[in-house]
């Protein structure tokens, strides 16, 4: 099972003031991961104490064209998240969780061109993550891409893939005028505010290209983030990681051995799945200049260190402008929008 305590650039307080405070990276002893701490986790991945759950989602029948929620027919919820299959021919499946638990039906099948609209409860929904799966069997399992484990997910015979997935993460805020908002799972005594916090980054790597379009009045976030040219063929085949020149290309462990993902330098050095990563801890001397845990690496040291000179960072900045490529990058990290904003995400087939 993938360890979902790892988090880069996804944490903060529930207030805009606290979210703007300088980030401090902490190390979990005995766990090969690190995370960003800024007071209380906005997306909720730090706390392991669940708060009261939002109302259960509606049961929606699956149609031939894919899943389609009708938020107008769902009491106390509305369509605030849309995901589209941008592949020319292939099916995609959507995996997700909301604070370590599947909230919607898991592994939703989307045919080429189909869109699913998720009905997000007005009381808010914390710590969601959505990621695409490709090359799956008829049940949406045993996928070539995206079978990286998580709540409600299984692992293939070779084990779970390293979690380098392209993904969209958000804590959906409470709609204004709602009588009683959901609890913040990271601080159960507090309620979710009326702000959405959302995040995309390639601090771990990438799998499928994608595009995010923000629909609504949100002056604090870009209207479009276009990473549709983020091709696996652009993943570095020989990256200088200090200890050696190594490929960042994640290979299918069975079958053709084709490239099915791209590690970030930090992920290559710290993940050990399928015997393709090295399994160092982020604060080890081998990995710390690429993972930038603080301490011992300061933000200034990170931003002037070897990570900024990697082919990986250059590729992300070229093909996915404005998006984080490493810890302390100056791209789009944790963004905020008023609750009720809609996020249209299109995932494309691997290139």
UniProtKB/TrEMBL annotation:
SUPFAM superfamilies: Osmotin, thaumatin-like protein. Gene3D superfamilies: Thaumatin. InterPro entries: Osmotin/thaumatin-like_sf (IPR037176), Thaumatin (IPR001938). Coiled coil: none annotated. Keywords: Membrane, Transmembrane, Transmembrane helix. Pfam families: Thaumatin. The chain crosses the membrane at residues 27-48. The keyword Transmembrane applies. The keyword Transmembrane applies. PANTHER family: THAUMATIN FAMILY PROTEIN-RELATED, THAUMATIN-LIKE PROTEIN. This is Thaumatin domain family protein. It comes from Chrysochromulina tobinii. The lineage of its organism: Eukaryota, Haptista, Haptophyta, Prymnesiophyceae, Prymnesiales.
């Amino acid at each position: 099972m993938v360890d979902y305590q790892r988090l880069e650039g996804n944490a903060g307080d529930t207030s805009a003031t606290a979210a703007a405070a300088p980030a401090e990276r902490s190390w979990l002893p005995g766990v090969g991961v690190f995370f960003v701490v800024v007071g209380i986790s906005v997306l909720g991945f730090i706390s392991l104490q669940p708060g009261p759950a939002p109302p259960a989602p509606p049961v929606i029948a699956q149609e031939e064209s894919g899943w389609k929620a009708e938020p107008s027919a769902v009491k106390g919820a509305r369509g605030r998240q849309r995901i589209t299959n941008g592949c020319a021919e292939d099916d995609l499946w959507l995996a997700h969780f909301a604070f370590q638990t599947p909230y919607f039906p898991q592994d939703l099948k989307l045919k080429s061109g189909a869109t699913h609209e998720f009905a997000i409860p007005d009381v808010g929904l914390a710590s969601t993550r959505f990621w695409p799966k490709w090359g799956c069997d008829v049940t949406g399992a045993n996928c070539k891409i995206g079978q990286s484990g998580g709540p409600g997910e299984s692992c293939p015979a070779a084990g779970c893939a390293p979690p380098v997935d392209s993904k969209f993460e958000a804590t959906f805020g409470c709609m204004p005028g709602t009588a009683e908002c959901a609890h913040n799972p990271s601080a159960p005594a507090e309620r979710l505010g009326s702000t959405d916090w959302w995040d995309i980054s390639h601090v771990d790597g990438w799998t499928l290209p994608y595009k995010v379009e923000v629909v609504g009045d949100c002056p604090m976030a870009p209207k479009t983030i276009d990473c549709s040219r983020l091709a696996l063929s652009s993943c570095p085949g020989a990256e200088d990681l200090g200890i050696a020149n190594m490929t960042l290309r994640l290979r299918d462990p069975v079958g053709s051995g084709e490239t099915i993902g791209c590690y970030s330098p930090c992920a290559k050095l710290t993940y050990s799945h399928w015997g393709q990563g090295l399994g160092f801890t982020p604060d080890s001397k081998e990995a710390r200049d690429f993972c930038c845990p603080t301490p011992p690496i300061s933000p200034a040291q990170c931003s002037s260190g070897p990570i900024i000179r990697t082919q990986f960072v250059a590729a992300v900045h070229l093909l996915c402008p404005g998006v984080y490529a490493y810890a302390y990058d100056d791209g789009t990290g944790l963004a905020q929008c008023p609750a009720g904003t809609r996020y249209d995400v299109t995932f494309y087939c691997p290139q």
